[in-house]
Design a protein that fits this description.
By secondary structure, the chain is α/β, with parallel strands linked by helices. The chain contains 15 helices and 13 strands.
Length: about 450
C-alpha cells in the first residue's frame, strides 16, 4: 500500500444487480468523485454523511452514463479512517466498469485486495482481529458463522485479550522496577504472587486457545461419513440430516454402490456429508470398489457415524466395523428405533438410539456430533471461538513462554531472562490484534480479502 494514494474499486459482487457500489478512499476521494458526478441540486458536495442524488457523466464527452447516489464520509469518521465516497449506480457490469475507468483516469488507482480494510487497520479504526472478522463475515455460509464473525468484528475477542495483555504488562513493569530500583533479588513472597498471576494468565490463554478445537471446524467445515453394513438405513440417516431425499432408498441391500456427497450444515457448522456403500464380505467387483472407497472416506473424515440396525442382533459385519473405525472418531447410532428392538449395541460403548423415519433421537445426535468436534474442551456456542490458525498459533506460542518464565522465577533465575520470556509472550498475543506484526505478514493476511473490501 502506498500512503497518500486515493484508491477506487467496485465493492459489490461481480454480476448484475439492482445496485452496484464503487468505493473511493483517500485524500482526493471527494475531488475525484466530483469530477464525474453532477448533483441534482446546486448545493456543494462537501457535506459529510449526506446522500446526494445526481448523474454520473463522462467529462470528456459530457455523456450522461447513469443516475447515481453519492455519499461522502469525511475522515476520520469513515470505514477506512480516510475521506471515503461511495457511488451507488445501477448494478450493470458495463456501467460499473465505465465509472471505475473514469475514476482511475482522474488520478485514483485500483485498490488492492483488502486495501480498504487494511487502511482501516493502519488508521486504528479497527484492530487486526476485527479486520480478519470482516473477511469471515463476507465468507460466512451459515447464520452461526455470521453471528460469530459479527461478534469478532465488534471487538469481542479483542476485549477478552485486553485484560490479559494489561495483566502481563503489569508483571513486566513490576519486574523491571525490581531490577532498576531494588538491589536484592525478588523476595519469595513477591515471587509467589507473580507465579500465581502467571498461572492465571496461562489458564486464561489456554482456555481461549482450546476453543480452536471447534472454531477450526466452524470456519472450514468438516467431513462426516456415514458407514455401516448394507441395509441398516445409512441413506435414510443421510437424507434426514440434509432435510431432503437425496440418496436412493430401497429395501435391497447394496443399493448405494459409491460414495454420495452433499454439503449442508449442522448446528450452524458447515459439513460435507458422505453416504457410503455398505461394508460386508462380497465377491461383486463393483460393490468391492465401492467398499474400498468407503474405507478411504472413513480414513479422511473428521467424524464417522457408524449405523447399526437396532431391529436385528449385532452381526459379524457390525463387529468388524467396530474394530475398523477408531474409537475417537466414531459415533455409534442404533437406527430403526421405530421397530421392535433386538440389539443393545456394543458392550461398554455409548450408543444413540435414533429413527431416520420418525426423526427420534436426531437432536441428541446433532449435539453429540458438535461435542465430538469440540473435543475435551467445554465450549459454549455463545463463547468467543478462535477460528484462525494464525491466531491459535500465537496463543500456543505465548503459553510455553509464560510457563518457562514461571519456572525460572520459581528457581530464582535471573530477572532479565524472565523478562525476555514475558516480552515474547506479550509479542505473540499482540500478533492477534496486530500490534507486533511485520508489513510482510500484514500483506499476506489482507491479500486473501476480496477487492473492494
Amino acid at each position: 500500500m502506498r500512503a497518500g494514494d486515493t484508491i477506487a474499486a467496485i465493492s459489490t459482487p461481480p454480476g448484475r444487480g439492482g445496485i452496484g457500489v464503487i468505493r473511493i478512499s483517500g485524500p482526493a476521494a471527494l475531488e475525484t468523485a466530483a469530477s464525474i458526478f453532477k448533483p441534482r441540486s446546486a448545493e456543494p458536495l462537501g457535506s459529510p454523511a449526506l446522500a446526494r442524488v445526481g448523474k454520473v457523466f463522462d467529462p470528456a464527452s459530457r455523456e450522461i452514463l447513469d443516475s447515481a447516489i453519492l455519499t461522502y464520509f469525511k475522515a476520520p469518521h469513515s470505514y477506512s479512517g480516510e475521506d471515503v465516497v461511495e457511488l451507488s449506480c445501477h448494478g450493470s457490469p458495463i456501467i460499473l466498469g465505465r465509472v471505475l475507468e473514469m475514476l482511475l483516469a482522474r488520478g485514483a488507482r485500483p485498490a488492492e485486495p483488502g486495501e480498504f480494510t487494511l487502511r482501516a487497520f493502519l488508521n486504528k479504526r479497527i484492530d487486526l482481529a476485527q479486520a480478519q472478522a470482516v473477511k469471515d463475515l463476507i465468507d460466512a455460509q451459515t447464520e452461526f458463522q455470521v453471528r460469530l464473525a459479527t461478534r469478532q468484528m465488534e471487538g469481542a475477542l479483542s476485549r477478552q485479550l485486553s485484560p490479559i495483555k494489561d495483566a502481563l504488562v503489569n508483571v513486566i513493569v513490576h519486574l523491571e522496577s525490581s531490577i532498576e530500583f531494588v538491589e536484592d533479588d525478588i523476595s519469595p513472597e513477591a515471587a509467589s504472587l507473580l507465579e500465581d498471576k502467571l498461572d492465571r494468565l496461562i489458564d486464561r490463554i489456554a482456555a481461549i486457545a482450546a476453543s480452536f478445537s471447534l472454531g477450526k471446524y466452524v470456519r472450514e467445515g468438516f467431513d462426516l461419513v456415514i458407514v455401516g453394513k448394507p441395509n441398516v438405513g445409512k441413506s435414510s440417516v443421510f437424507n434426514r440430516l440434509i432435510g431432503r431425499d437425496r440418496a436412493i432408498i430401497t429395501e435391497i441391500a447394496g443399493t448405494t454402490r459409491d460414495a454420495l456427497y452433499e454439503a449442508t450444515s449442522i448446528s450452524g457448522v458447515p459439513v460435507r456429508l458422505i453416504d457410503t456403500a455398505g461394508i460386508r464380505e462380497t465377491t461383486d467387483i463393483v460393490e468391492t470398489i465401492g467398499i474400498n472407497r468407503t474405507r478411504t472416506a472413513i480414513a479422511d473424515a473428521d467424524v464417522a457415524l457408524l449405523v447399526l440396525d437396532a431391529s436385528e442382533p449385532i452381526s459379524a459385519d457390525d463387529n468388524a466395523l467396530l474394530g475398523e473405525i477408531p474409537l475417537d472418531k466414531r459415533i455409534v447410532v442404533l437406527n430403526k428405533s421405530d421397530l421392535p428392538r433386538r440389539m443393545t449395541g456394543p458392550s461398554g460403548e455409548p450408543c444413540l438410539l435414533i429413527s431416520a423415519i420418525t426423526g427420534e433421537g436426531f437432536d441428541l445426535l446433532l449435539a453429540s456430533i458438535m461435542q465430538r468436534l469440540a473435543g475435551d474442551s467445554s465450549i459454549e456456542r455463545d463463547d468467543i471461538l478462535i477460528t484462525d490458525v494464525r491466531q491459535h498459533s500465537a496463543l500456543r506460542r505465548a503459553i510455553p513462554q509464560l510457563e518457562e518464565a514461571k519456572a525460572i522465577l520459581n528457581s530464582g533465575g535471573h530477572e532479565e531472562v524472565i523478562l525476555l520470556k514475558l516480552r515474547s509472550a506479550l509479542e505473540a498475543i499482540g500478533e492477534i490484534t496486530g500490534e507486533t506484526l511485520t508489513e510482510d505478514i500484514l500483506g499476506q493476511i489482507f491479500a486473501t480479502f476480496c477487492i473492494g473490501k
